[in-house]
Amino acid sequence: QVQLVESGGGLVQPGGSLRLSCAASGSIFSITAMGWYRQAPGKQRELVAGITSGGRTNYADSVKGRFTISRDNAKNTVYLQMNSLKPEDTAVYYCNADVVVTGGGLRRGDYWGQGTQVTVSS
Questions:
Q1: pLDDT tens, 18-69?
Q2: Separation of alpha carbons 11 and 104, rounded Å
Q3: Closest by Cα among 106, 84, 112 to 5
Q4: How many C-alpha atoms does 106 have within 13 Å on its Cβ side?
Q5: Region 103-120 average pLDDT
Q6: Which residues contact residue 122 at a Cβ distance below 8 angstroms, ignoring those fewer than 6 apart?
Q7: Beta-bridge partners for 100
Q8: Which of 6, 13, 27, 37 is the most exposed place for a label (fewest CB within 10 A)?
Q9: What is the pLDDT, as a whole number, of residue 103?
Q10: Please, what's the largest Cα pairwise distance for the chain?
């Protein structure tokens, strides 16, 4: 019903920047919150940043001042600008969206992207 497709991951040196994108498509009536999570090897998945439909944001302490989340509601797309990257930012980054879907009435669901690898290494 809803697909989230991420892009923008890759290999970057410490101190570098990357921009992740996540586009939602499908039977979408509206999207409330969108966010980015990450999971490093051997660790639990953690929230990196979130943004509401009204633009209110929240960040993990570890990324405050370095990462910026934004969204384009018209395109159902969320972005994560990552600056001053550190080796400890290395992880698979997942997009998440809280979506109201159409088709047989309105229903709310939680959807995830497939993940994109971010590696910070010299």
A1: 999 999 999 999 999 999 999 999 999 999 999 999 999 999 999 999 999 9
A2: 43
A3: 112
A4: 7
A5: 93
A6: 13, 14
A7: 30, 108
A8: 13
A9: 81
A10: 51
